[in-house]
Amino acid sequence: MYGKAVAPEYQGALTDLSVNSSLADVLDLGTAELRRAERDGAHAEAARSGLAVAEAHRRLGQVEDADRAWKASYRAGRAAGDGGAMAWALWSGGTLARQRGAFAWARRLLGLAADLGERSGDRLVRDYALAGLAETGRIQGDHEEVRRLHEQLLAEARRRGEARHTVWALEGIAQIHRNAGEFDRAFALFEEAAEIAERADDRRGHAWALRGLADIVSARDGDTGRALALLSRAETTCRAMRLSSALAYNHKMRANVLYRAARYAEARDRYREALAEFEAMGEARGTALARLGLTKSLARLGRDRAETAAELDALAHELERIGLRHARRMVSAAQEEFGLTAAEADVARRAPAGSR
Predict the structure, then answer these.
(1) Where are the domains of the chain?
(2) Which of 71, 123, 279, 285 gives the lowest tally of CB atoms within 10 Å of its CB?
(3) Minimal CA–CA distance to 128: which of 21, 286, 7, 281?
(4) In which element (H, E) is residue 123 found?
(5) Contact, 32 vs 18, CB < 8 A?
(6) Are the C-beta atoms of residues 202 and 190 closer than 8 Å to each other?
(7) Is residue 308 within 8 Å of residue 294, measured between CB atoms?
(8) Closest Cα partner for 86 from 125, 55, 57?
(9) Other beta carbons less than 10 A from residue 150's beta carbon
(10) What is the value of pTM for the model shown?
(11) First to last CA, the chain
């Protein structure tokens, strides 16, 4: 039913690159092709190779380089009069904006990409942009709003036999079920995603699916050993392909598993590791979640109650500012977990920094 996974963001002279190509190789080859196209005045090819450069930078966590690259790709596409290339560049920019926590800008760029893809006849970029909008809504906590869009995209991907897009949609729907506490349904969807990704040789999608399975195995079954083993398998792929964001989320999930097992010192260390990785790539959501986990671990290890209250209060305000509503609810749950009252948070907020 499904063929081998392909990477449609590798275009022009780079179409032979595999979905599993090392990001370092993609960046080297893409940069060489981009320079050649710019030297020859080949705007369409510059746009296509520039897209691969932008995506390689983004996935490596090099956000400033990624920002320059997608904008240059868009300009080259516009110079060539290539609406499809422009749409792909907007998709890349919107995905980067989501990674950086600029959710309103992400929605704007992804919406433009979907519209331009539709008008230019590039159905695939239209679908990728809609999937990006669905993911943006999901991570903000708008689960019901985006569930139907995820399911629509899943049906379309299944009908066309697009393995990679099917895996993405399955994982998105699985995460919605997991966040609702529907562990069995989430597990089944992550399991299907892992099977399809493995058969289609989509190592990135497989690594994300294994992470989802590890989460369920830990939260539902309390099987710490199996969860850590699944994460170790995924980490091998992340390191081989230099998937910086996926690796940071893998480390954050490892910390979650250790926290649930009451191995708080180990969890603290892994949260610190993940936090540094997220901060290095400007990943706003990951940074917030790692901060939350670190705060909870330190509290379990005897951190002063007022310091815990202050940190959770500051984190709550940051999440409200950037619009991560689901993560904000997680902070409220942590405040309840440690019995922190609104009055304590208010005192902590007013206290001079040096007194905490």
Answers:
(1) 263-356
(2) 123
(3) 7
(4) helix 123-140
(5) no
(6) no
(7) no
(8) 125
(9) 25
(10) 0.90
(11) 60
